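WARN  no MSA supplied for this record, continuing single-sequence
INFO  ligand: zinc ion
INFO  echoing inputs
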Amino acid sequence: MHPELKTVIELHQLDQRIAELTAQIDALPSQIENLETQLSQFIHAHEERQQRLAKNQKERRDLEADVQAIQSRISKHKDQLYEVKTNEQYRAMLREIEGEQANIRRIEDQILEKMIEAEELEKLIREAASRLDAEKARVAGEVKQLQSLRQADVEERERLEKQRQADCATLAADVLDLYERMRRARRGQAVAEVREGCCTACNVLLRPQLFNEVRGNTAVLTCENCGRILYYVEPAPVDSAEAQGADARTSA
Ligand SMILES: [Zn+2]
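INFO  complex generated
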């Protein structure tokens, strides 16, 4: 194979791998951020339930204090029942007591609601607490893995970029310029394999004379349609009745 064509193909493979690595490297910070967001949402929900439970317990204590205050008022009223002078006053006092007792029943219903809510919260809090350490460890492990993957990607990319520079230095200026121009024009794909007489990038059939030249891989040649640098890979000889058929057709 023509040495510059060989270098151009290698350059193409390097650039594709560098592009892959760059995409991975660029995607990793947001993957790490997603994991950390998952964990902080988990912790936030856990803390929020703990706050709700504390609030629930405070409200329940306040309601219980209200009940006690009402009960002491009722017993005071009951003492006063013996001091009233008229039936009318007596009935009024009884109504007062009944009203206070109704208040107690209403507040006791509220206390029961608070207790049910507290039980549910306590259950969720216990579950989250038992999972919290495992969740933290999972996220820390995954973040560490992504960071070391990123580090490996960065190192591989540096190594490939050095190799790229070395390859570029061996190319003639016009070949390097052609490669770079096509790379910019063709979204990173400056090189295309020719298969069965066609450019595999744009699918256009090569003129037979050009195809014969490309098959030899003895020069840096370009597709007349898309402008990419062309190369040819001999089909594998084993078990290749189909490939030979294709070969016969294309060389005919
Ligand atoms: Zn083409």
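Strands lie at 191-195, 198-199, 221-222, 229-232.
INFO  checksum written, moving to next record
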